[in-house]
Amino acid sequence: MMFNGVNDQTDGKVRCWTISSICPGTAMATANHTIDRRIARTRTSLHRALISLIIEKGYDSITVEEICQAANVGRSTFYLHYTGKDDLKQSGLDGLRRQLAETAAHAAKGEGSQRLGFSLAMFEHARDHVDVYRALAGSRGGAVALGTIRQILSDLVRAELATNVGKPLQDAIPRELVVQYVVGAYMAVLTWWLDGGTKLPPDRVDAMFRRLASEGVMAKDS
Questions:
Q1: Does some domain include residue 1?
Q2: Measured distance CA(176)–CA(45) in Å, rounded
Q3: What's the distance, Cα to Cα, between the start and end of the chain in Å?
Q4: What's 132's domain CATH number?
Q5: pLDDT tens by residue, 41-87
Q6: Are 81 and 39 in contact (CB under 8 A)?
Q7: The pTM is what?
Q8: Could you tell me what percentage of the chain is helix, strand and coil, using 3-state DSSP and rounding each to the nearest 5?
């Protein structure tokens, strides 16, 4: 008998031992992992294709066919993952939501329990995708995207305020007004920064926003 994990000749026959024959569960997990990686690669290719096309020609005129050609993906494969270009764009925004939520949660648990933990991450995301933000500006798709981003930020601020339940706001200011005030201020700072060419680094813009949000525009210079 020879058994080294590859061959077994006990009955005179040579058998090839594979991962699946020794441990079927492992093979299934490996196969699923391979499939998951293929799905991830396909979706990444589609997202990159959409971004490049947005920069090239704007969002509204893009077709699914153009996205598929740019990503080298068949239409049938595209529709296995997304219902259309709006769904593809929305999935990217959902990824942004998860990223900002994780960043905010980490900041809240860190030293000093930093408030508005999404702020810097959002500025960094805008800097890394500034061409996309500019290409979306003024388009129908851009209006939808910015509306979704505003909703994402509103949800994050609302969740942060919820952790302070029982702590009355000064002069009984409604919490939803605080949410809209903070998000409105953030979007104004973000727009101002993007329109100015993102010349200031994200951490400096973040610091300015935090000062405005915490001290207000009438705070005296230190």
A1: no
A2: 39
A3: 84
A4: 1.10.357
A5: 999 999 989 988 988 888 889 999 999 999 999 999 999 999 999 99
A6: yes
A7: 0.67
A8: 70, 0, 25
